[in-house]
Amino acid sequence: MAYLSCQFQRSWQASCHLFFGLPVAMAAFLGCFAVPTGVFFTLFLIGAPAWPEIVRILRRFAGYERVRAGGWLGKPITELYLPLDGSPSDRVRLALTDPGTWRDALWLLYATVSVLGFSAVVLVLWPVALLVDGTAAVFGRRPRVLPVFEDLADAQARWTAALLKPSPSVKLGQRVAELSESRAGAMESHSAELRRIERDLHDGVQAQLVALSMRVGLARQQVRSDPDAATRWLAEAQEEIDATLAALRGIVRTVHPPVLTDRGLAGAVRALAVSADIPVEMNLAAVENGHRLPAAVEAAVYFVIAECLTNIRKHSGASHASVRFTRADGSLQVVVADNGRGGAGERGGSGLLGIRRRVAALDGTTEITSPPGGPTRMRVELPCGS
Hints:
Layout: H1 2-19, H2 22-43, H3 50-73, H4 88-97, H5 99-138, H6 146-164, H7 168-222, H8 227-255, H9 258-274, E1 280-283, H10 295-316, E2 321-328, E3 331-338, H11 352-360, E4 365-369, E5 376-383
Parallel strand pairs: 1-2
Antiparallel strand pairs: 2-3, 3-5, 4-5
């Protein structure tokens, strides 16, 4: 009896889902007349400015049904349209040429017929279900008719999802726009990096080399007349050489850290954790399996973690941090978290915008959660193959 009661509840919920579609079907029936009428008047330039507004109403109407069908299926149905922006003529053109408009119009026909049909079937089946399954329950048998209501609701929601999901051309256009934006961000980040390296070489290494040249020149002039002074100048030149080499190594590390080549990503992250000045909990099992990631992915992850740990040390006031790696479905996920004061944002030269651009250039995603008072959590996902 408990199973029958549970099945009865699910069947009733499925029936309610279908019956709640009756107002949708009635509105869709009216829309089947409104859309062709709007197209007719638009083609003959009468009332053309009203067409984008009709399309907006149609989009909101279809959006409601997306939410309803997605709620039943347990997963949201993506909504994606061309924006109705620009001049009046542009809005009319976009409303007419957007594939989503015609998919929504096709859905109007489907909603008018299917919802009424499903509702009629439900009305007919309920007396049959009560009779047949009620009798079966007396003999301890499982219900046969009640599960049909769930199947009907599933079919109606799936067909709705198939009609209202974004068209492949619009998805492709959105993907091209995303790639163009990420490419522009990557180019800007690359240019900024080149300018930084040029500035470091000009203001740092070049100045040190000039000073070194001067000390060596002074030592040459005094090597016979004043050997002691020449020795001092050479000693200072030696110190300058060491400082210059250290500066060059620092610049090289910002291009591609040698520790990545020598020790791999796991070893490089451990080196970053040692220099973080706070305890860093690490889970590196996903990058310690002996299979190296693509060099670009390793470098991006290294710089993401380095920037995060630097921000944590300088700005967060955290007492500990964590770095965790997971790999699944051809992607690498990195989560860096701390227990600091929070409030981190992509502003004021925090470096978080640079992280997002670097990750986007590799077709990755970045999520930052940092409410005031903390904690702060950054999640980065990058494609890395198998």
